[in-house]
Amino acid sequence: MLRDVLLGTTSQGKNIIVTTFSSHIARINTLVDLSKTLKRKPVFIGRSLAKYLDAAKVAGIADYSNNAEFVRFGSTIEKYFNKTKDTKDKMFIVTGHQGEPKAVLSRLAKSKMFPFEQEDLVLFSCKIIPVEENYHNRAILEEDLKRKKVRIFSDLHVSGHACREDHRELINLLTPENIIPTHGDVKMLEAQKELAGEMGYAPEKIHILKNFSKIYI
Q: Which residue in 41, 48, 67, 211 has a CA-CA distance of 20 to 30 Å to 34?
């Protein structure tokens, strides 16, 4: 999907901003490869991106230190754009895919730091994590971006999360005494509860909780 958009959309003379999960090193590798094809220099902006990419370098998975720029701290973003004359020979990979108000993309969309122009490309290589706050934040972010008259490409993402039979395999491998479904909306949590029941877990051994709930097992 990223290739289709980045290589199939006219981007000459346009800015390109991409946001994705900072921990998704394989996705970031793809973006770096595509930036080379487009003859643009990758620029990573945001603290969490820098931290994950430093870890990837230490682990020997990826090293972008010689072919990319890093803007690590929020306090240096405005200074970077003040001294950067040409932004259209770069691909900006930034934090903020869930619309977090203090993350880089939201800050750029709400300010005049970045030289947005009509029909610049903004790519969301992610899905919205299904929490009400995230839906709210993303809606605000996308409205701010629309005011900049950019082109927005959303949901350029294939989930790496486990499916039902993968969950079954994991439960069989771990044989936990209790099951606590988490990290999903109510429909997803109920689906795992149903699976656990299918696998022979008694109802009192399956716990669907809310944030900050306490449980004594």
A: 48
